[in-house]
Amino acid sequence: MTIRLIGYSASYPTLRVIICLKELGLPYELEPPASYQSLKDEDFIANKHPFGKMPVLFDGDFRITESRAICRYLASKYQGKHNDIILIPKDVHKAGLVDQFISYELSYYDPPLSKLVYQEKFAKKFFNKDPDPEIIKQAHEELAKVLDVYEKLLEGKEYLNGEYSLADLVLCPGTNYVYGAGHSDLWDNRPNVKNWWSRLCNRDANKKSFEEIKSFWENN
Amino acid sequence: MAIRLVGYSFSGPVLRVIICLKELGLPYELEPPASYQSLKDEDYIANKHPFGKMPVLFDGDFRITESRPICRYLVSKYQGKHNDTILIPNDVHKAGLVDQFISYELSYYDPPLSKLLYQEKIAKRFLNKDPDPEVIKQAREELAKVLDVYEKLLEGKEYLNGEYSLADIAPCPSTYYVYGTVTHSDLWDNRPNVKNWWNRLCNRDAIKKSLEEAKSFLENYENV
């Protein structure tokens, strides 16, 4: 039975799971909700996500929510089954560090990044609100400081934990949006970060996923 | 070699790790930093936490940061070695759901709870700022809605994932502080499933001991 993924591919937590599915070589069916408002319907809340969010993944009868938890589950269950890609290392110490880097993304990288994603990509188009230049400026400055830390974390390494892992995957979707929305200097001005981002953009799963949503933005 | 945990035991994220260590029966040494300011020192940033935060755990030469990854690492490595306590089930589906509930805590439960914690416990005592009643009101309303969801999630269950797990440990520290302000204990007490769940958690040895440790540390602590 195919995996079902509920969400919009343009929503970057959903895209996180899409990239993960592609990396692991897993087929899936994407089921976009009727609308953002439909996420608050009683039925969605009762049977899909109790907090009215996306993505939601069904693997047969098994339902799981929250993009990073979904990715960890998919990696635990399917890693190595369809190809050789390792998203979470078997070694408990290496896996611990991958988890740590995922937490850095969640705690420090994503907050300013998600503000920029909303302001630059979603505010006007989906919510008819003008981007707020003050928020953009502050978020840009905050993200710059975070990327200074990432510049050091990546010293002498191709990926955050040395080898490619879920720690790199989780920040790809949001970064793709903000990089392409007039803030590319944040990554390009830092050599380690720049090379790391180029490397990530060259991965098949990322290339295909970014192409997929490109046509969403062009057609909506 | 004993595990070293860098942090203040009353700090929520540090307390999360302390509960986990106690649940797994693991001895450890607590190393409180000199001050909150010292977390921004070059040396701390280079050798402990690149973002200047606590906790930091050293297991021999191995260093790991961020409370939830630290807990997951300890569970992966030591679960079942010193006692029978299971914090992450071996079954991949059950483990996935524990992970999901940890994410709910992080995404929905913690944000309004942290605001209340800051306003009621930290602002005046540590930063000489008056609590903001508007922020408190909004945070309470937001947390009430989250706890309405938790009330349903706990229907017919003793713990979030049925059996006790890391998912129940994650919300303990901040809940303890905000519940303890008495002003806001109604948020948990007015919801029967949530109330019973919280009482059950407060009665667990590891949690009881950890919270007492934090309480006495906080009472004796002069400078932060």
UniProtKB/TrEMBL annotation, chain A:
GO terms for biological process: glutathione metabolic process. Its EC number is 2.5.1.18. InterPro entries: Glutathione-S-Trfase_C_sf, Glutathione_S-Trfase, Glutathione_S-Trfase_N, GST_C, Thioredoxin-like_sf. GO terms for molecular function: glutathione binding; glutathione transferase activity. This is glutathione transferase. Transmembrane segments: none annotated. Gene3D superfamilies: 1.20.1050.10, Glutaredoxin. Pfam families: GST_C, GST_N_3. It comes from the Eukaryota. Residues 5-81 form the GST N-terminal domain. SUPFAM superfamilies: GST C-terminal domain-like, Thioredoxin-like. It comes from Gigaspora margarita. It is an enzyme of class 2 (transferase). Residues 134-204 form the Glutathione S-transferase C-terminal domain. Keywords: Transferase. One of its GO terms (cellular component) is cytoplasm. The keyword Transferase applies. It catalyses: RX + glutathione = an S-substituted glutathione + a halide anion + H(+).
Automatic annotation (TrEMBL), chain B:
Residues 1-82 form the GST N-terminal domain. GO terms for molecular function: glutathione binding; glutathione transferase activity. Transmembrane segments: none annotated. The keyword Ribosomal protein does not apply. Keywords: Transferase. It catalyses: RX + glutathione = an S-substituted glutathione + a halide anion + H(+). One of its GO terms (biological process) is glutathione metabolic process. Its EC number is 2.5.1.18. Coiled coil: none annotated. One of its GO terms (cellular component) is cytoplasm. PANTHER family: GLUTATHIONE S-TRANSFERASE RHO (PTHR43900:SF3). This is glutathione transferase.
